[in-house]
Amino acid sequence: MTVKKISLLVLFSLCSVIWSDDCFAFEITEPTSGSVFHPGDKVTVRAVAAQNENPVAYFIFTSQMPFSAFGVLPPYELTFTIPLEFTGSDKIVASAKFSDGNIVETEVQMQVVLPANITLQGIKIDPDDFILLKKLPPDSDPNDVRIAETDYISVSGLYSDGVKRWIASSADGTTYTSSDETIVTVDSEGKVTAQGLGEAKITVKNGNYSATVDVIVKPYE
Q1: Is the separation of the CB atoms in 171 and 178 below 8 Å?
Q2: Strands (E), 99-221
Q3: CATH class for the domain made up of 120-219
Q4: In the chain, helix, strand, coil percent, each to 5?
Q5: What average pLDDT does the segment 67-92 reach?
Q6: Does domain 26-112 have CATH number 1.25.40.340?
Q7: DSSP state at residue 175
């Protein structure tokens, strides 16, 4: 989240935190929650206030994609084009502040999926040679353990439209398997954790494609 968003979020805190009986309605009318889009689609977010009530300021933003709009006059809108490399879910949030100090916040969920004619052509993992972890003594500082004993595998997919997309999440259909969980384990999001000394392989799969990376666990020196 950008500094601009953080500063504006201080102004537009959740209505539930400061809710009062006369808190005015402000809601997103477009798109509706659960709407499905494709990468490259143009999206216009529209919000409306209760009749005869105009906010003194409003803020609309997406929580995952880097788009926002801030203003004081209607129409209360944000228009953006979904990046070609983006897929998954995002949350659109709209906040309004009224003259009596009341703040209302509303949100909708949107989904971005690939069209059926865009298919995965291969995957690439990073690092692609080896991962080196260090096994610390049991009484080590937790922060030192986190740094020395864990790492993450980044996975990108090359698609038939020529766009490379990040697909490390299990929500993208990527799976991870360790050849020896007594040495290293890996969770559904690609987090690798040292369990014992030695070497093992992590296999990453998505669709018909797979890749492997060696993991070496050495004692901490």
Answers
A1: no
A2: 103-112, 120-126, 130-135, 150-152, 154-159, 164-166, 175-178, 184-186, 191-194, 198-206, 209-219
A3: mainly beta
A4: 10, 50, 40
A5: 95
A6: no
A7: E
With a threshold of 0.85, does the pTM exceed it? Answer: no
Domain extent listing, the chain: 26-112, 120-219
Give just the sign of the alpha carbon dihedral 199, 200, 204, 210. positive
Could you tell me if 82 and 165 are in contact, meaning their C-beta atoms sit under 8 angstroms apart?
no
Give the pLDDT band of residue 102 (cuts 50, 70, 90): confident
Give the C-alpha separation, 69 to 47, whole Å: 12
Q: Answer whether residue 131 shows pLDDT above 60.
A: yes
* Token duo for residue 40: 């490259």
Distance CA 84, CA 215 (A): 33
Which residues touch 149 (CB under 8 Å, ≥6 apart)? 133, 134, 135, 136, 193, 194
